[in-house]
Design a protein that fits this description.
Elements lengths: L40 E2 L28 H4 L14 E7 L3 E9 L5 E9 L5 E7 L10 H11 L2 E5 L11 H20 L4 E11 L1 H10 L5 E7 L6 H8 L5 E7 L7 H9 L4 E7 L7 H14 L4
Parallel strand pairs: 5-6, 5-7, 7-8, 8-9, 9-10
Antiparallel strand pairs: 1-10, 2-3, 3-4, 4-6
């Protein structure tokens, strides 16, 4: 299969091309989660783990892709140049009540300049750390306040990026997804390279398009120990298959009961495919969710990343 040209959110297509039929992932799918407002968990199901080291070569993109691929065939497309210099530049630094907020730029996986904020708790660490990814139309400002609060109150470092635009995708949404996941993996390199960061305790937080790309990231990146995915929009068979190959040990999924991009049945069906211990939470909110959801995300990341 090929991904459609656009999703209902007006964003690039939402997930990797893996196979044309959900039948290919039925053996590894999780148990559907009961519809409840409170905590809901599914026990982990073992899945193949992507290699921790880079693949021998990086596939040059854009290029013509097969009409259909299975998971193993698609996996090497997400390899990136992990030896590429990060070229970190600090534009400004501010101490903010128990956290240092640095506005930075660094060299992205495709060689472009990425604007971001690096937020570090006071002290030497090492601290757990979270990569934040905004939704369509957002920027590094979207999660800056939340990431700063996590550093101040929960001693979790954060990297909040402005997702690169203008990548050479040849007008192909599948290639755009692969390129963006490469960018996210490279951003994790920067986060893990900070001396104050415990690279064995890395997390991920994404909203909308950031959670769609994030679910794909979780199926190819073994370093992430937990994730919080906000308002991930179901509907793509390829996204379903990515969900079935999530390797992060734990995942929190947050949905709004007033969000028009999914129903409770479709959202929980997607969640049920995640082959990891996961929790589904619903809020009386729309697509942006609410303060209650932010409080639960903070508690989740604090517990799952072993903050003491």
């Amino acid at each position: 299969m090929r991904l459609p040209s656009a999703t209902r959110l007006g964003m690039p297509a939402s997930a990797i091309v893996l196979v044309a039929s959900l039948a290919a992932c039925s053996a590894s799918g999780g148990t559907p989660i009961a519809s409840t407002a409170g905590p809901s968990h599914t026990a982990a199901t073992p899945v193949p783990t992507p290699p921790a080291t880079l693949w021998p070569s990086v596939v040059a993109l854009p290029t013509a892709l097969p009409a259909t691929m299975n998971y193993d065939q698609a996996l090497p497309l997400f390899a990136y140049n992990g030896a590429k210099l990060l070229d970190l530049k600090i534009l400004s630094s501010e101490n903010n009540s128990g956290a240092t907020v640095e506005e930075i730029t660094f060299s992205g996986a495709a060689g472009e300049t990425v604007q971001a904020y690096l937020i570090l708790p006071a002290g030497n660490g090492p601290f757990p750390a979270v990569l934040f990814e905004h939704g369509a139309g957002g920027s590094s400002e979207t999660f800056l306040a939340e990431a700063t609060s996590l550093a101040q109150g929960h001693r979790i470092a954060g990297l909040v990026v402005s997702r690169p635009t203008g990548l050479d995708n040849a007008g192909d949404d599948t290639i755009e997804t692969i390129l963006q996941v490469r960018e996210m993996r490279h951003a994790l390199d920067l986060l893990a390279a900070q001396p104050q960061v415990d690279k064995s305790r890395l997390g991920y937080l994404g909203h909308s398009q950031g959670s769609i790309y994030g679910l794909t990231l979780l199926s190819v990146e073994p370093r992430i120990k937990t994730a919080a995915l906000m308002a991930v929009v179901p509907g793509s068979p390829a996204l379903d298959i990515a969900a079935a190959h999530v390797t992060a040990p734990t995942v929190l999924l947050q949905f709004g009961s007033q969000d028009g991009y999914y129903t409770k049945n479709t959202a929980e069906a997607l969640a049920g495919l995640i082959a990891a211990t996961h929790k589904v939470s619903w809020y009386d909110a729309g697509h942006s969710l609410n303060a209650e959801a932010m409080t639960e995300r903070a508690a989740w990341l604090t517990a799952q990343l072993g903050v003491k």
